């Protein structure tokens, strides 16, 4: 069994046995101390030293000149020459790889194509692909590559430019955070997304905190030996990499699932809390907390863009289970207007074809592919602003429900209770956002289907040059996972325009908000929220969270 290991860069310095204290160091002998003649090293005295044949002074001058000459030659031919030689070797390796790509273009891999268009990112992507392929071959599995593209379109680059260093929202630092187990099959997309984010936002803008284990598919090794060296090579500060791998089992079979998950999530947030509480270096703006889902770097950028421009405290994606019509996080997500589920649920997982049946305003924005406010969410990826989490008094923590509260607190998920505490912390003015166009998936074939739907949507129209201008609080339009107000088409029930994409039943359109529709108008929480309590038992077997329903006070129930 592997011992739990924590990668920390650089390793903590240890004191050498030969280290002298200041009091035990031998004192230098002064040239003017008693027992020897005083020697004046002023160059003005050099002629007189020659005339008077003061050989001791001449010897000192000659030694000094020799040392200066040796230092000059050492710098010129050793240090500077080595640096120049290393740069030449790096450039030669890059050119060799570029030549190889040009000659092997028939292979057609995206990393090769990116290498031609963006040398630095392309080189790292190629190294990533080669490292992952070796692991796949060793495990005897078929290499399928990534689901999502490592490219950003010109529209995306313009849309997210304000997040880059020098942009009006640039210079912020984001902690990519996760608790993972047996996710080797997802690592190509996770790693590629991280490389893209570092390349676009800058290496000083990204940190990573991973809690992993005990995996039996090589996930730990991929993070340790493939990803970590690449991130350092791209310029990420090693002190911003927190890989806590090869962990023992958390004990879900015998413990309270909600309590154990809360502890794991809290552990993943330790770097954010330390950085923001006086630790060295710049503190984090927020944690980008992701589940074991397929996603792309462009999706993360869209979520960060919405989080910043909307001024949100928490921003969630939209996660899919078995297909595009199976919204996953139903137990956690609650509507802002009614406090109800996003769609009705029975004792079994049902398709989410009847979304927001009691909330027409939320449904309208969802159908228009526009961000909307929620009472609570998680949805596969959540961005959590550091400020409300850390500020005193009562910083927010992931937790299980209170067993002593009277009346009893709803035994909700640790992420649901996080949202509840956020409403309390913000005095009923929490800003919790859902970006429905960022569709993440727990299965590869579902992710591929969502990706293909995005491509179909982009092919159906896409943004015109006039739509590229950025609007207050939301930015311009875009294809795929961006807001859909630019779409033309038939008149919809909302009184705006919508277009059904490829016979899928998915509609995107202007709705009634017009061009500035991305901006969310924040409201207070619903008075009551629907509770499906987790049974107060240990283990996960035989749990039916839909067995009991009650309505509780949003802030106190």
List the helices and strands and how they pair.
Layout: E1 5-7, H1 46-51, H2 55-103, H3 110-117, H4 119-138, H5 154-159, E2 174-180, H6 187-201, E3 206-212, H7 219-233, E4 241-245, H8 257-268, H9 270-276, E5 286-290, H10 297-310, E6 314-320, E7 334-335, H11 360-367, E8 372-376, E9 381-385, H12 386-390, H13 414-425, E10 432-441, H14 444-460, E11 490-491, E12 497-500, E13 507-509, E14 528-531, E15 550-553
Parallel strand pairs: 2-3, 2-5, 3-4, 6-10
Antiparallel strand pairs: 1-4, 5-9, 6-9, 7-8, 8-10, 11-12, 12-13, 14-15
Helix pairs in contact: 3-4, 4-6, 4-7, 6-7, 6-10
Protein architecture, described:
This protein has 557 residues and is an alpha/beta fold. The chain folds into 3 domains: 41-103; 106-138, no CATH class; 154-516, Spore Coat Polysaccharide Biosynthesis Protein SpsA, Chain A (Alpha-Beta Complex), CATH 3.90.550. Helix content is 35%, strand content 13%. It is built from 14 helices and 15 strands. It has a 10-stranded mixed β-sheet, sandwiched between helices. Strands 11-12-13 form a 3-stranded antiparallel β-sheet, with no helix packed on it. The longest helix has 49 residues, at 55-103. The radius of gyration is 30 Å and the shape is globular. 40% of the residues are buried. The model is unreliable at 1-43, 100-109 and 459-515 (pLDDT under 50).
């Amino acid at each position: 069994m592997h011992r739990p290991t924590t990668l920390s860069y650089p390793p903590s310095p240890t004191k050498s046995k030969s280290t002298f204290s200041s009091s035990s160091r031998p004192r230098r002998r002064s040239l003017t101390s008693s027992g020897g003649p005083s020697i004046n090293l002023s160059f003005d005295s050099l002629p007189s030293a020659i005339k008077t044949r003061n050989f001791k002074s001449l010897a000192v001058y000659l030694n000094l000149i020799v040392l200066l000459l040796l230092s000059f030659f050492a710098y010129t031919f050793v240090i500077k020459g080595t640096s120049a030689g290393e740069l030449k070797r790096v450039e030669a390796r890059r050119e060799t790889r570029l030549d190889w790509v040009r000659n092997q273009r028939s292979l057609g891999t995206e990393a090769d194509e990116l290498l031609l268009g963006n040398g630095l990112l392309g080189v790292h992507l190629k190294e990533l692909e080669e490292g992952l392929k070796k692991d796949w071959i060793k495990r005897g599995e078929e290499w399928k590559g990534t689901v999502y593209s490592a490219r950003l379109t010109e529209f995306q680059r313009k849309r997210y430019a304000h997040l880059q260093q020098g942009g009006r929202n640039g210079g912020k630092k984001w902690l990519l955070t996760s608790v993972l187990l047996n996710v080797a099959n997802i690592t190509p997309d996770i790693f590629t997304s991280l490389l893209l984010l570092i390349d676009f936002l800058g290496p000083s803008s990204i940190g990573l905190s991973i809690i992993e284990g005990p995996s039996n598919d090589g996930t730990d090794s991929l993070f340790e030996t493939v990803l970590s060296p690449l991130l350092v090579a791209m310029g990420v500060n090693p002190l911003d990499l927190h890989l806590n791998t090869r962990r023992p089992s958390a004990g879900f079979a015998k413990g309270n699932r909600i309590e154990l998950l809360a502890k794991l999530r809290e552990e993943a947030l330790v770097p954010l809390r330390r950085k923001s509480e006086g630790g060295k270096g710049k503190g984090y703006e927020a944690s980008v907390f992701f589940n074991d889902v397929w996603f792309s770097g462009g999706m993360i950028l869209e979520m960060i863009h919405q989080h910043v421009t909307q001024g949100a405290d928490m921003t969630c994606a939209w996660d899919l289970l078995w297909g595009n019509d199976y919204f996953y996080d139903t137990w956690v997500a609650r509507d802002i207007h009614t406090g109800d589920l996003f769609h009705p649920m029975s004792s079994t997982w049902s398709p989410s074809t009847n979304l927001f049946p009691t909330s027409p305003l939320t449904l309208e924005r969802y159908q228009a592919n526009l961000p909307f406010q929620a009472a609570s969410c998680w949805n596969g990826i959540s961005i959590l602003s550091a400020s409300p989490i850390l500020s005193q008094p009562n910083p927010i923590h992931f937790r299980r429900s209170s067993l002593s509260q009277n009346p009893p607190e709803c035994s909700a998920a640790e992420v649901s209770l996080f949202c509840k505490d956020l409403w309390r912390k913000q005095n009923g003015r929490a800003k919790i956002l859902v970006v429905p166009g960022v569709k993440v998936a727990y299965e590869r074939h579902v992710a591929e289907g969502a990706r293909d739907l995005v491509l179909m949507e982009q092919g159906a129209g896409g943004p015109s040059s006039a739509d590229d201008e950025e609007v207050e609080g939301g930015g311009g339009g875009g294809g795929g996972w961006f807001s859909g107000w630019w779409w033309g088409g038939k008149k919809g029930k909302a009184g705006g325009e919508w277009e059904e994409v490829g016979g899928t039943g998915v509609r995107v359109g202007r709705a009634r908000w017009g061009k500035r529709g991305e901006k969310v108008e924040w409201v207070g929480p619903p008075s009551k929220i629907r509770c499906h309590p987790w049974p107060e038992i240990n283990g996960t077997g035989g749990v039916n969270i839909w067995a009991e329903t009650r309505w509780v006070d949003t802030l106190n129930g």
